[in-house]
Amino acid sequence: MKETQIGCTNCGMRCQVDITHDDDTVYDWQGNNCSRGEEYAIKSLKLPYRMMKTYLRVEGGKFAAVKVRSVDRVAEEQFDSLMRTLATNLVKAPLSKKDIVEIAGIRFEVLENVAKK
Asked: When comparing pLDDT for 69 and 47, which is higher?
């Protein structure tokens, strides 16, 4: 059996969940303060997904880049190839906070306003 500690990011409590498991089975977990922490930790153990925050290049905007975050969690194994894809893509100004842009099948929420030049 293995012991793994996973930091839950579902809420502001940021619980550290300790999981006892083998490759296919979870036997025990401790440290979560709610059921969401349990669910997050077990899912993260079996399929490691994370939220992605990054910058996208902007075409025709007052700023050259805009801060974004993924709407849904992204598989860790996709991060490297997705970052390479994002580096070659441009989004067009104007952009408003809360706009959703989709690149490579991943939806990103715009976190700041970018006006046209």
From this structure: 69
